[in-house]
Specification:
Layout lengths: L1 H14 L6 E5 L7 E8 H4 L10 E6 L4 E4 L7 E8 L2 E7 L5 E7 L4 E5 L2 H24 L6 H21 L6 H6 L3 H9 L3 H4 L7 H21 L10 E3 L5 E3 L7 E7 L4 H5 L1 H11 L3 E7 L4 H11 L4 E4 L6 H6 L7 E5 L5 E6 L4 H10 L2
Parallel strand pairs: 1-7, 11-12, 12-13
Antiparallel strand pairs: 1-4, 2-3, 2-5, 5-6, 7-8, 9-10, 11-14, 14-15
Length: 366
């Protein structure tokens, strides 16, 4: 920490010099007078969170709307400039690079970069993809977005990056385009990188994402296998609020909803009214088993009282949910699994999805 403070003090002084390596010009109409920059070496950014170093920070201010940021001169580096309500510009440099960034608009984000082909391509990708992101967020915030329309926007967003990779297979910006993909699209693009694209300094940033995507795909495959109707629900045993051990197998002969949730999860809590309606409608043929994951024990107990949860509630003490989440292919919270009276899984739904209750009705024949 002391070393970071010393480095920042030195850099802050250099940042005011006109000979800085990154010059950022902001459209005066946007009224920007300053922003905070996070930056660091790519080799540090590519490490696992537990091993990565804390990024450097500096505050850039200017009355004219033109800012100067020094580059790290001895290795490839990344600079993150927050520009507007969660949007940001990411710049990449190698020793000796000099960049000029011109920001025209925030929403949708539009900017250009001169200095390296890598950053010129990235700026173009960011500006073009920002249009799709703005459409997506506006539709999501409308209250009742059309799922098919959202899907089409998502497909157009992905196509922008896959088309770039196909048209520019040797580009150093290919790893940046791959970062914006997921699932099979990510894996196919990653495995198909040309040697020249793989030599890009950005390629190292893909390794943590590759591990994450691999885990997600394995979980999805596991989920599909579990929902075949032939897979027995993995049994588990945890304690309830009274300290009594309760197992899933205790409810054989009933329909069961396993609700993987946590008091830290707003979407889990948002879904409780609908879950209570289903419990009142289908009991006693249906039991709900709430399994709190990644939660503090006292927070869980307080949550049971606060939200007045009338079903069976169990506390999972395993760090990060343990093997249980892997067994059920849990990719996010809330996740609900429907188990039939024979103890077989017939559905797993991730997220707060009202369609879940139509699925429940169909499966139970009610």
């Amino acid at each position: 920490m002391k070393k970071s403070i010393l480095v920042l003090s030195a850099i802050a002084a250099v940042a005011s010099m006109a000979s800085a390596d990154i010059k950022v010009n902001v459209n005066p109409a946007l009224g920007v007078r300053g922003f905070d920059v996070e930056y660091g070496y790519l080799k540090d950014m590519s490490q696992k969170p537990a091993e990565s170093k804390e990024p450097f920070r500096l505050s850039a201010t200017s009355e004219s709307g033109s800012f100067a940021i020094p580059t790290l001169a001895d290795d490839a580096a990344q600079y993150v400039i927050p520009v507007n309500q969660g949007d940001y510009i990411v710049l990449f440099t190698q020793p000796g690079d000099e960049l000029t960034v011109d920001i025209q608009n925030f929403s949708p984000l539009s900017y250009t970069v001169k200095g390296t082909q890598l950053m010129e391509d990235i700026a173009r990708l960011d500006s073009e993809s920002s249009v799709f992101l703005e459409q997506y967020h506006k539709m999501r915030s409308s209250g009742q977005p059309d799922p098919e329309a959202l899907k089409q926007i998502g497909e157009a967003y992905d196509k922008l990056f896959t088309d770039y990779i196909a048209a520019n297979p040797e580009s150093a910006a290919v790893p940046y385009a791959i970062m914006h993909l997921d699932g099979a699209d990510f894996m196919n693009a990653y495995e198909g990188m040309t040697p020249k694209a793989a030599a890009s300094p950005l390629a190292m940033l893909l390794e943590p994402q590759k591990e994450r995507v691999g885990r997600q795909m394995a979980a999805q495959q596991r989920k599909q296998a579990l929902q075949s109707g032939d897979a027995m629900a993995p049994d588990f045993t945890f304690k309830n609020a009274e300290g009594k051990e309760v197992s899933l197998s205790d409810f054989r002969g009933k329909w069961v909803i396993i609700d993987f949730w946590g008091t830290w999860c707003p979407w889990c809590i948002k879904g409780f009214p609908e879950l209570k309606e289903a419990y009142a409608k289908y009991a006693p043929q249906l039991e709900i088993v709430g399994v709190a994951c990644n939660d503090e024990y006292d927070a869980w107990l307080n949550g049971l009282k606060k939200y007045d949860l009338p079903w069976v509630n169990l506390y999972n003490p395993e760090p990060k949910g343990g093997k249980l989440l892997e067994d059920y292919g849990v990719e996010g919270f809330p996740t609900k699994a429907i188990v039939n009276p024979e103890g077989k899984i017939v559905n797993i739904t991730t997220g707060h999805n009202p369609e879940f209750y139509n699925i429940l009705k169909e499966k139970m024949g009610k």
